[in-house]
Specification:
3 strands, three-stranded antiparallel beta sheet
Length: about 90
Amino acid sequence: MNFKSPSFHWNERDEVLEVRQEAASDFSEASLYDFTLAISLSEMSSLVRVLAESGLAKSPNLINDQMADTTRHLLSLLWSLSKPPQFEQTPA
């Protein structure tokens, strides 16, 4: 199945990344459907791991070109993960 114009959303309730495609055709292309693919953080970690390990080894130029604009967001995520968690303090 090919998502021609997917949209990406964070589902806070289920804590998953949702990839949505409206009016996508199935394999027969006779009907149109709205699809939502939910990706858990564990699955997202696996995607990033495969991209970093195999993707860079097999298609470094493509990944460098396609991911150049995403680097800033990845660095922001890494920076956030490297800091100790902040807990809200309630007044005594």
